[in-house]
Amino acid sequence: MERTSKFWYDSHVRFLLIAWLAASSAFAQWPQREPKNAPRKADGSIDPTGPAPRTAAGQPDLSGIWEPGGEFEMPKYLLNLAADRKEPVPFRPEAEALYKQRQATNSVDHPGARCLPSGIPEKDAVPAPFKILQMPDLVVILYESRTIFRQIFTDGRPLPVDPVPTWQGYSTGRWDQDTLVVETAGFNDRTWLDMAGHPATDALHVTERFHRRDYGHMDIDITINDPKAYTEPWGAHETVRLRPTDELMEHICEENNRDPAHMVGK
Q1: Contact by Cβ (8 Å): 236, 98
Q2: Cys-Cys link to 117, which of 26, 49, 87, 167 (CB 3.0-4.6 A)?
Q3: What is the pLDDT along the chain (266 residues), one digit of tens a residue?
Q4: From 3.60.60.10, 1.10.3210.10, 2.40.128.20, 2.30.40.10, which CATH number describes the 5-31+60-262 domain?
Q5: What gap in Å lies between CA 209 and CA 78, rounded to an integer?
Q6: 3-state secondary structure labels for all residues of 17-67
Q7: What contacts 143, CB < 8 A, 6 or more positions away?
Q8: Structure pTM?
Q9: DSSP-based three-state secondary structure for 134
């Protein structure tokens, strides 16, 4: 298992996490509204372990405001996607060299310090809320962090063959019983998988499996397949929790961005 404690205490990482956590608390500024048809406990409060809602087609409805991890929980998969691995990450030599270089320089070149977008799957672990809008042929994810949107087409179309490379890639989805399986490709080669510096290339293909296990909790199983950086697929299991009474806020990273001056590296 890779060590993350040193990385956690690096000053620029603390600075970035404070910025993210400050942004994630902003959604409390909206007046709270009780959701309709939420399962309730005997005392009338929302029961997060109650049954997940379903669409008219019978699929789990993933719609809502979600947030990675638990309250006051360290965002370990943002810090290190491989945090739970018991075996080494299957690096190719050039990817391992790049990873070690980023570690040696305290990840001074992480895109987030310069308000550049997080890619997939790093976006799944950023400690800020995101909103899922589920429609019959399309799932839209609105990320508060960086005010970024993502489209997941569930109308049966294939991934584009020769797309213009992007930060978020191109996503299609299909249902495997009660799990939404999302395939994403077409990335540029500028994204990082996490703040630890695990690299990604333009050959990256990410599979996410979204499973809403009850009203208040959803699992995301992530598989990384990047043959230019890794010798075999590898991944992580993450969880997100519903924030049923909250709403998103605008987050413009470029305003008053003071990160770069703190990215001193080594």
Answers
A1: no
A2: 167
A3: 343 334 433 444 544 555 555 444 444 577 788 888 899 999 999 999 999 999 999 999 999 999 997 665 678 999 999 999 999 999 999 999 999 999 999 999 999 888 899 999 999 999 999 999 999 999 999 999 989 999 999 999 999 999 999 999 999 999 999 999 999 999 999 999 999 999 999 999 999 999 999 999 999 999 999 999 999 999 999 999 999 999 998 888 877 766 666 666 66
A4: 2.40.128.20
A5: 18
A6: HHHHHHHHHHHHHCCCCCCCCCCECCCCCECCCCCCCECCCCCECCCEEEE
A7: 123, 126, 128, 130, 149, 150
A8: 0.87
A9: strand
The C-alpha atoms of residue 252 and residue 67 are separated, in whole angstroms, by 19
C-alpha closest to that of 59 among 158, 173, 190, 144: 173
